[in-house]
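Complex 187.
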Amino acid sequence: MYVPGYINQILTVAETAILAIYEVPLRIGIYPGSFDPVTLGHWDLILRASKLVDRLIVAVLHNPAKSPTFSLEERMEFLSLLFKEHPYIEVATFHGLLVEYARQKEAQFIIRGVRAFSDFEYEFQMALTNRKLAPELETVFLMPKEENSVISSRIVREVGTMGGDISGLVPEILKDRITSRLRSRTY
Ligand code: PNS
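Predicted structure with 4'-phosphopantetheine bound:
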């Protein structure tokens, strides 16, 4: 059944208030990333993760030392558009240490995706570092659908910049925006 976004938001606020009154602890997860740009793989994982927690924070890294292709505002806008009908999914930005942000948000879980063995070493290192820094936080790994497991933001940027079709790599509602932005890139 389709429920308009604003009704969902009212229900979420009411539900959160009731849970707070009865001191029911919420399961809060953080799905961090660069999202430069968001792909079908990210979208797949976010929907899977949202079923495991009461509230999912999709946290976009703001790292002034890096120069992403898409600005922080664009990356946030794409994600917000994608999940505007999902009141339990919040799109936010963070800088500095992820574990500090997770503590600030009272999250118990960090959610990351693993697509292939090649992801494992980096993810393993990051998860163990985060555990050392914040033993109370648990990292949860999820796998995307098979056909989404070969997609990466880098592949999207490369195909799009060279004039290729990015259908099936990014969510359909963002395809035109991401395509035109990548084609307007100058070198
Ligand atoms: O999408 P990405 O680029 O693989 O995401 C990497 C991200 C943002 C999760 C990671 O770089 C990160 O958590 N950065 C914040 C800095 C931090 O906490 N570093 C310590 C963990 S190794």
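Residues 5-13+25-146 form a domain with the Rossmann fold fold (CATH 3.40.50.620).
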